[in-house]
Amino acid sequence: MALPDSRGHFGPYGGRFVPETLMPALSEIEKAYREAREDPSFQRELKYYLEQYAGRPTPLYFAANLTRHLGGARIYLKREDLNHTGSHKLNNALGQALLARRMGKKRLIAETGAGQHGVATATVAALLGMECEIYMGEEDTRRQALNVFRMELLGARVIPVAAGSRTLKDAVNEALRDWVTNVRTTYYLIGSVVGPHPYPMMVRDFQAVIGEETRQQVLEASGRLPDHLIACVGGGSNAMGIFYPFIQDTGVKLWGAEAAGRGLNTGRHAASLTAGKPGVFQGAYSYIVQDENGQIKPVYSLSAGLDYPGVGPEHSYLKDSGRATYVAITDAEALEAFQLLSRTEGIIPALESAHAVALAMKVAPGLSQEEIIVVNLSGRGDKDVQQVEAVLQEGGKNHGC
Amino acid sequence: MGVERIGATFAAREKEGRKALIVYLCAGDPSLEVTAAAVEELAAAGVDIIELGVPFSDPVADGPVIQAASTRALAGGTNLRKILDLVKDLRSRVSLPLVLMSYYNPLLQYGLAALAADLAAAGVDGLIVPDLPLEESAPLREKLAAVKLAAIPLVAPTTPAERLQQIAAAAQGFIYCVSLTGVTGARESLPPGIAAYLARVRETTDLPLGVGFGISHPEQARLLAPLCDGIIVGSAIVRELHEGGLPAAVKLVQNLRQAI
């Protein structure tokens, strides 16, 4: 049976846990999305922008040097970093912004962590001539100052959020509060497969272009399906995007790399699936990092895009069913992968994507040379270069190096 | 107890030709001792029903005043178990209905089965859960019904007619009418279209209507009173208590009481 069910559940996960004020808006979005999905003119327009504006399809690149260096399975990189704006986020932002316009909404709001989704949303708002406000944790505006300027350059207003931990989850809270207040005029463009139904389904569908292309490209390159797909998981949209078209192909092993931060035993991590337990947070029932009283615990990752205490409900379902395996990757491992990919392939990955590369470094050497791994390289690392330089200069000693 | 006690309170006010005054306190802000004293004194000052807020780390339906109060309460170590102990202790001294207002996750992690029994044993009369809409609320409603506690739903100005009927059909105690599209917090004026909205809700149910969000002044309460059965004041009381202490909160309650 196709998931989610009619009420947005993936097994026990997902659903709609939001203030009543938003319930009619969610029904309206779901209805509009289901209609748009079946409408050839909507699909045609989305395809046009994905190809002519975003630059799709992105290449599936055989990483010969990395493969040789690790000495195991053949490693391919799905180059989402080559998408316009530098990450997979644009796929979803384009889809939802076209939907918002179809619904007659003139104002877009979004949350952002690393700034990649904020930049993607500001970009489509500029493209389609829509008003745009981006909520971003104050701590993240500091870590990702360049992206704040990019968003402003694109005509968006960036609103720093000083509440709570001043990171991604607080930006989502503030965006939800804005939406509750301005629901009649505003479309909330959520950036990952999280939040209330229909967002986890809709964002997955808009990102599934990654997996659909990968499938075709890997068949062309090697005549068969890959053995392993590896992607990083914060909220989990790039992972769901590459996993989804392969869900029925049980021979394809699915791997998600979560942020272990400074280590799971330090309490300074953002590993909801490997170290959290199920609960209700920001609109859905899913694995979350929480204390025994159900309060959301502070999370940590060097990567602002993975620094989130929740995860998409479909990932919780894939974990429980055993279809996907989730592994927590430390800051130190991600930093090593960040440098290794830069040196071996001349590709600087986003810190988020470096978690997926780090997991490939663990998995690949133990596999035969006949096996194929596809790593979803979800974003490029330009935004992280300054931060990584600072960390490496201090000797990485606080990151378990 | 429970549904009955809430019903009797509204009935008593109606008989006097007055409206119920419902006040929200963030339990544990600044301490559970102060919350206990506030319940007793505000009850004596004329409050009819008290909502005790269970603080949550990520209160998406709340504005800055209650967010800050929740942060203070959590920093002081407040949790649901301690709030139930507080209610148990208060029950020997106050007879007004006490309802809890909590986001869903703290309830879920407590365990729904144990929760209903413990709420009833402590003397809580009902529960309001701002992030638990009708579609997801059946498990909790069943548990509460078994111990005759009220599952008090929220409705909003955006709730369509058919949905209002479904929500009202599952409601107990009273219907919490969110006055505006927005989060909690004092506003200067009344939202446009409030009369038509409350009339729409009135058509769907015989249960009392409590109106909350944005109400801070006695004058607002006086204007709203003819349209509903109870006035709910949260952020304004929380702010008075925080800034002026218990005497300031009592004074606001006295002024509100006179207005309705």
Automatic annotation (TrEMBL), chain A:
Domain called Tryptophan synthase beta chain-like PALP: residue spans: 54-379
Top-level taxon of the source organism: Bacteria
Pfam families with a match to the protein in the record: PALP
SUPFAM superfamilies on file: Tryptophan synthase beta subunit-like PLP-dependent enzymes
Reactions performed catalytically: (1S,2R)-1-C-(indol-3-yl)glycerol 3-phosphate + L-serine = D-glyceraldehyde 3-phosphate + L-tryptophan + H2O
Keywords, comma-separated and alphabetical: Amino-acid biosynthesis, Aromatic amino acid biosynthesis, Lyase, Pyridoxal phosphate, Tryptophan biosynthesis
Cofactor(s) required, per the database record: pyridoxal 5'-phosphate
GO CC terms, sorted: cytoplasm
PTM annotation (N6-(pyridoxal phosphate)lysine): residues: 89
Pathway it works in: Amino-acid biosynthesis; L-tryptophan biosynthesis; L-tryptophan from chorismate: step 5/5
CDD domains from the UniProt entry: Trp-synth_B
InterPro entries in the record: Trp_synth_b_CS, Trp_synth_beta, Trp_synth_beta/beta-like, TrpB-like_PALP, TrpB-like_PALP_sf
Assigned EC number: 4.2.1.20
GO-annotated molecular function: tryptophan synthase activity
The keyword Iron-sulfur belongs to this UniProt entry's keyword annotation: no
Gene3D superfamilies: 3.40.50.1100
Function: The beta subunit is responsible for the synthesis of L-tryptophan from indole and L-serine.
The family this protein is said to belong to: Belongs to the TrpB family.
Subunit structure: Tetramer of two alpha and two beta chains.
Family matches, as HAMAP family: Trp_synth_beta (MF_00133)
Official protein name in the record: Tryptophan synthase beta chain
Highest classification ranks of the organism: Bacteria, Bacillati, Bacillota, Clostridia, Neomoorellales
From TrEMBL, chain B:
Keyword terms, alphabetized: Amino-acid biosynthesis, Aromatic amino acid biosynthesis, Lyase, Tryptophan biosynthesis
Species of the source: Moorella mulderi DSM 14980
Protein name per Swiss-Prot or TrEMBL: Tryptophan synthase alpha chain
Subunit structure: Tetramer of two alpha and two beta chains.
Catalytic activity reported: (1S,2R)-1-C-(indol-3-yl)glycerol 3-phosphate + L-serine = D-glyceraldehyde 3-phosphate + L-tryptophan + H2O
Top-level division of the source organism's lineage: Bacteria
Alphabetized Pfam families for the sequence: Trp_syntA
Any one cellular-component term (Gene Ontology): cytosol
Taxonomic lineage: Bacteria, Bacillati, Bacillota, Clostridia, Neomoorellales
EC number: 4.2.1.20
Pathway: Amino-acid biosynthesis; L-tryptophan biosynthesis; L-tryptophan from chorismate: step 5/5
